[in-house]
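hey can u run this one w/ alpha-D-glucopyranose bound, need the structure tokens asap thx
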Amino acid sequence: MIPQPAPTVGRSDWFVHDRFGLFIHWGIYALPARHEWVKNREKIADADYQRYFDHFDPDLYDPAAWARAARNAGMRYVVVTTKHHDGFCLFDSQLTDYKATNTPARRDLIRPLVEAFRAEGLKIGFYHSLIDWHHPEFPVDGLHPQRDDLAFREAQRHRDVRKYAEYLHGQVRELLTNYGKIDILWLDFSYSSRDWGWSKGKGKDDWQSERLVAMVRQLQPEVLLNNRAEVGGDFVTPEQYQPRGWVHVDGQPVVWEACQTLNGSWGYDRDNLDWKPPTLLVRMLVDSVSKGGNLLLNVGPTARGEFDPRAQQTLAAIGEWTRLHGRAIYGATASPLTPPPDCRYTQRGNRLYLHAFAWPFRHLHLPGMAGRVEYAQLLNDASEIRMVETGTLGHGTPDSGAADSLTLVLPVQKPDVTVPVIELFLKAAPQA
Ligand code: GLC
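ok here u go:
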């Protein structure tokens, strides 16, 4: 039986079908180009961080090019940072001056992005930071860039998180009112369990999450909400790791999405060399779907407004694979069957997809599959894969354990694709 996730409040039917999205982390942290947490890591005060605001001039920004790159990579939705923890807003919020319209960019950078991605047929998601290291009412805590400036801490003791929460709610209202239908809202993040002694972390009481979520549901009943405001949500978000299996909450399989980077950083990080090869990223996509989940893969554009060449090449390489293997991804999910070593299964109705992470010599044995497969082919070129069900494979050597095994006869040469996939047409659709 193919497992089913617990139902969601927002609409998730398209989400669990589409499986693959683009995360975009863009903001003025692209100028220092050393991670989106640079303000925190280097303990930069507002006055010093201002230089990035003053020099943000993304003259090459072409959201249509981003949307095309995403579409060609096989991505079906986008989640873009409207504001990150540094408080800088890419959209034209009426509630702050700390926004793109007041930088040399001089315009709302979110609106044309939404239009461009919609035009390519992608669904739209907003990432909005719950944390804000710029807002004057956001209490200074152990994550704040000026946490070690004792005079600053003392002078700022009056900060009132309730006033900040009003601002937060107001901005979420703007985002869900002024940009048409929004498919995903990705709020990030809560840390109420943190305790530095002199300050505590923040969570649902600070954000007033229940009220916030009620407003979200009222403004956009279909929006799919993530789980980082400490009041549940429609889907869970393992970050920078692949879970061991279908993610469960309270014993129930849930809708989930792994979020992953190209190189360990979300924001543009010039000198970072931890680039994952496309093969690994394709495997991570397959791995997610084989466990009933999605993959949200991030690009951190430069401050000129482009995907840097390494990101572009990676997306193009992934697109080569998804173009030929989309049948094994879109609308597919975890299979109840257990794959052989070095492989993953995804399943869509009576079609079982075997993703070979390693290419064995000539024979791939599928335990338990004797008599269950009607036809088998390589997915990249629809060339038949012959099957052997019983007996010996040569010179009468006993093939122990072969009784219920199906053996696929593979070409010696691995097909010239990142991850080869064999499409198996099962004889009877598994019971729902
Ligand atoms: C984290 C980080 C962050 C990134 C996000 C993506 O919580 O704070 O910089 O935006 O995860 O999942």
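DSSP finds eleven helices and 17 strands in the chain. anyway lmk if its weird
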